[in-house]
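Dear support,

Our group has been running a series of protein-ligand predictions, and this particular one with flavin mononucleotide is the one our PI (initials K.S.) wants archived with full inputs and outputs. We had some confusion internally about which version of the output was final, so please treat the block below as the authoritative record. The input we submitted was:
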Amino acid sequence: MSPGRIGPMETHNRIVLPAMDMNVSEHGEIEQPEIDHYVSRAAGGAGLIITGACAIAFPHGAASMKEPGLSDDKYIPGLKALADAVHAAGSKLCIQSTHHGKVARVDVANDRPVFAPNQPDYTYDMSALADSTREELGKMGAATAGKQTEYREMTDEDIAWLIETWADAAERIAKAGCDAVEIHAAHGYILGVFLNQRDNKRTDQYGGSLENRARLACEVISAVKQRVGDRLAILVRVAGEQYGQDGGLTLDEAVEASKLFEQAGADAIHVTGWGRNPFDNFTDGPLPNKVGAYLANAAEIKKHVSLPVIAVGRMLPEVSEKALAAGQIDFAAMGRQLLADPELPNKLRDGKFDQVRPCINCYLCVAENFFDDTPFCAVNPALGNEALLPLKPASASKHVVVVGAGPAGLESARVLTERGHRVTVVDKSDRLGGTMWFSTMTTPDNERLLKWFKAEIKRLNIAVKLNTPATVESIKALRPDHVIVATGAVRPKPDFPGGDLPNVQTGDTLRAMMLGTATAEEAGALLSTLGKLGRLSGVTKSPEFVRQFTKFWLPMGKDVVVIGGSLVGLELSEFVAERGRRVTLLHEKQQLGLPLAMPRRWTAVKDAEKHGVKIHRNVSITRITEKSVEWTEGGESFSAPADMVVYADGTTSASPLADELRAADLGIGVDVVGDAGAVNYIHGAIHSSWKVTTEL
Ligand SMILES: Cc1cc2nc3c(=O)[nH]c(=O)nc-3n(C[C@H](O)[C@H](O)[C@H](O)COP(=O)(O)O)c2cc1C
Ligand code: SF4
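Confirmed final output from the archive:
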């Protein structure tokens, strides 16, 4: 929370919103939705706002026609409106500037060769795309109008033009009254591509040694410095490391490059990371899975420069605070966390740590950028719709009964209470979270959200009745004015021959056993052993404990067959395989992991394979026996041993309670939210809840 300084710019704290393109501009102009987005993060307390990438030569070198432009004075009024608004909200504004080089989709779509150091070899393992749907592939292809990329080896004239154009862009940023410019030298854009030896094979003064490879970035930095002098702070974004293919930038090289950037006139180094294969390494960089993923690299770079260093990459508040206090870094950039909760800095300042709505690392936001679309956030429906906040008070306070304490029920209860309604939540199980509690086993990031919900329910003093099955009569007895049904999806037993054998479990029976609420009928012969786990989880109610404990003791035989490879089946397979079981995953379709967002899906498939899950796609199940599962695939018959079969398919929405309530004609409004209305997991739960509860 202490003030920070970068060159001529002082910030009121050390929290930075890093660049995240919102894709809402039209033809290079900054429009009001973009201003609203940044202003809400400035008002939420971030000391420095960095815009998403802006194109120095727009539309040349742009990744999207929705990207703000910096190539003409006509863009200055939009930049100025943004700067004024961010300043009025109390923060400083930095404009990220780039030429996207090989990723300039606008150039490809318009038959312009893209800039590269040389005719390149950007070959990647693209097998991950087998898990993208036809629609997703179509949308990705549309961003380049389905055209093939042609490369242009940059000539000396091109290089001189690029440097001059960058300096012109910085001039406009300064004229608009912004505080800083960030020069992008990472993420596969032109300066980042020159920097690494895998992509830069030039034999002139811009290729070869690190000094030569960094020359273009240094010349851009110097030209910008000369042009804007002390009017703007100059940040340089660099990958502390490149992940994936050999030949990417190493930490040692990033340290050397940072030293050269300092000499060239940089005022701060912003340390990111980059996965070289966007399909395989995206969750290594630029959006890491790992908490504090680039902190060690940032700390190392800081040892070698005398400039402030910004670290990014899941810099959670507790990680950031420690690193800042230890002097490892000077600023912490929090990207997705500030999408999930723009008020994060103010909440930290006010000691309301528990109230920070966490990002669940689901990658749904950034997946939209693959399609040249506008990001949305699974846990924050106001992203891109900032006018939804603050929540409007209800015109008349009602008593609302919410049935189900999963994410849809809890979010409904929270929003309704914030708006002034009185809410009673009822749930048949013994704990909050519903399916989300169960999902925290395989997806630990969801546990942050569960904890947040619990803290919010407590803070808002919402009445919760657990171990309380809801019926028309029991709801009537609560005398509500309105009922929200958030009872979740149904997971039927499989209808294959053998689907009713005792070694077959469904998501529901597994969940009931984990929660300790399984009946003998549900759990079959396995109840006696699995029940122990249920009792344990019932005692601790701590997902983390059960997650760790099951690494030592999991009541499943050696051979497990999971049928159904969508989100739940895929993550469950990995979870079980990680615990030493031989897992066969049988999926009746091609794409695994749906509806996980693409980058996360690609990584989940890779991780499952890494843990030894044997994956079979496009299969047709023939029958289940007490010891095996049989299926056909490409006209051939197969079988796999199975001590336990988990049926993770067939999840469908259903809300029989809502039907009964409506049929009972009690004169009470009834709404259905979450998976009970349409199966779309946490994102669907929260967004559908807002649709209903912000209107009630
Ligand atoms: C939706 C979205 C768009 C992004 N766009 C950009 C961008 O325009 N320029 C950039 O350098 N990084 C971009 N990033 C990467 C972020 O700046 C940040 O480095 C990354 O999200 C890791 O930080 P985090 O873990 O705090 O989210 C984007 C990230 C997201 C989520
Ligand atoms: S969409 Fe998912 S990853 Fe992105 S900010 Fe929201 S919760 Fe985080």
